[in-house]
Each structure stands twice: as C-alpha cells, then as structure tokens.
Request: fold
Amino acid sequence: MDIEFADRVKRLPPYLFAEIEKLIKEKKAQGVDLISLSIGDPDLPPPQFVIDALKEEAANPKNHNYSFSQGEPDFRQAVAEWYKKRFHADLTQDQVVALLGSKEGIANVARAFVNPGDKVLVPDPAYPVYANGSTILCDGLPEAMPLLEKNGFKPDFDAVKAKKAKMMFLNYPNNPTAAVAPLEFLRESVEFARRHHLILCHDAAYNEMSYDGYRAPSLMQVEGGKEVGIEYHSFSKTFNMTGWRVAFALGNRQILSGLGAVKANLDSGVFEAIQEAGMAALLGPQEELEEVRRIYTRRRNVLVEGLQRAGFQVEKPQATFYVWVPLPAGIRSVDFCARLLQEAAIVSTPGVGFGSYGEGFIRFTLTVSEARLQEAVERIRELQI
Reply:
C-alpha cells in the first residue's frame, strides 16, 4: 500500500535535532567517547523540593483524573503571582494557559489564527518550530527576519516585510545566538506589532538563565505588551524539568482563548501532580536557581576562554546555556560540525540548521560538566583550526 504524506508534511525540512540524535546513537553504538554539546537538555537535576512535591502529589488519588486543558486555577494563579514578583507585571489567572511544554503552545497558537497562505514573521536563525511546527504545518508561509551580528542578532524592523503577515515570533534571550534584548527593544516590538496588526508571540524560555548580574526583561513589562501578544515560559530550562513537559503562555486573553480552543480539541491538561510540583517550583525557595546560574557561569567561562585560546573570535554570552561561535571565513557550518564529530568526537550544531542566516556559525551547549568541557576544548585545540 502506497501511503502519501500531506503536502504540508512534505514541505517540512528534516528536523535538525532528530538527525543529531541519530548520529549520536550511531557513534555511541560504535563505542566512541562522544562529548555532546548539541541539544539543549540540562544535565542538572530539578531542585530536590520540586521532586519531593511531585512524589507527594503523585501519591494523591485526586491528581490522577483529567485536568483542565487550560490548567488548574491554582497553577495559573501561581504563575500570575510569580510574574508579579519577578517582573512587577499585573496578570490574572484568566490571562494564563498551562502547556504541555512550550513547544506545544508555540506550535498550536498558529492553528487558531493562521489561515492557508498567511505569512508568519520568524527570526532566522531560530528555533525551527517557529517556521515548521507553527507555520508550515498550519499552511502558513514563513517570512524570515534576518538576525545579523551587526544588529546584535535582533531584527531590523525597518527592513522586515510585514505585508500580509498575521503573526510574529521573537525569542530573547535568544536560541541559538544567545543574544539578549533590552526592554527598549521589546517596546519597539510592541509598536511594530501594533502598527502592522500582528499577533506577537515572545518565547522567553531562557529568561532565568542569565549571568554576570544580567536579568532578562519580559514582554509583560511593556505598555501594550498584553494587548498585542503573549509570552511563553517553560519549566524545562529554569528548573531543569525538560522531561516533565510543563510550561505556560500568558498575556492577551483573546489570543489565549484561541490557543485554549485548539488545545481543548487536541489534548487534555498537564498531569495535576506536575502542576502542583510546578507551583512548588515557582513559589518555593529560589536559592538553587542561583547555584545553577553559578554552575553555568563557570562552564561558560571554561568553554569560551578555551575557544578563545584556540583562535575563535567568540564572546561570553549573558544568558542561555548556548555559545554561538563564528567560524573562520569560508568554512561551512555543516562541514565544521562533521569534522568535529569525525576527528574530535564532539557533537555540535551547525548554524545553518537554524536557518540560512545561521551559516558561518556553530552552536555549543553548556549541558555537560566542566571537566568534559575542558576535554572538548583540548580536543578542539588539537584540530589546529
């Protein structure tokens, strides 16, 4: 029987991280001592008090029924309280929707608003889900907003082609470039969205992963932010809970209502015990987050300073657990990553995998120990780039 994929699936490029995972499995099966600096999956555990909360709540029979697809009221209230404390942003629980990971919410929001042929403004380079899951799979047309080094890896709104666009995605602190954006940039984004009647979706998954005293701002701090957009935040990176699949979106009620309508027809809510543990994470002690930041700061310093000694012109990022490394002129990112894999047993991510404007860069993650990062640096130096 010959089964044909739908056209929207045929238009999808290969999913970058699925290909990387395949390579990792192949090399491990060969017994190679791989150092994987490719996929942003924290190696650190969640805070112990969050794990303890999950154990306790999982033992409670009341938490094993279906939960509301938009999230339990107590969970949504806890999110609003955390945003008030962290960003001084006034939100109510009806401005919050729980998600089965932010990836789900990013993909599903376009189902509510993007019609076939509508344009969606997506950064380039960027997390592939903006262009693929949220645009192509909704029969929309991705319109690239180049993130150039000369602009601090932020879009030049004067050059963005917004005609016939319905939605815009932004992501700061940024994956893959690790760029940060000041509050003034978010104000410009709100004004741009308002001027062009765009739904603004800001992915703030890395807001709490910041270093050297930097604290990332929120779209919800900007006047008009709640009128034109929504913001995504995830427990995955902040609390090292990637496998738990819990996140939230908040902001404009009408946008969230559309997202909620899609979710009500596609999924049930996050497991209630996980929502309870998420509440514990948000409202509990935050000292362990500071320790996580210190760990990543030390790792960042080991990797970046080692790369600098090896001749790379790379700067220390202020946020995320990524290091965006410019390559010497004329070297393709796929070729360099292949050389790292074959000659140094290091898995990295080619910049072009995040979009055409990512060519000339590779991305490393900080999700291994300092000792392994030091080993990676030594292997790279032996390559004599």
Q: What stands out?
A: Residues 48-283 form a domain with the Aspartate Aminotransferase; domain 2 fold (CATH 3.40.640.10). The longest helix spans residues 287-309. The radius of gyration is 21 Å. The chain has 13 helices and twelve strands.
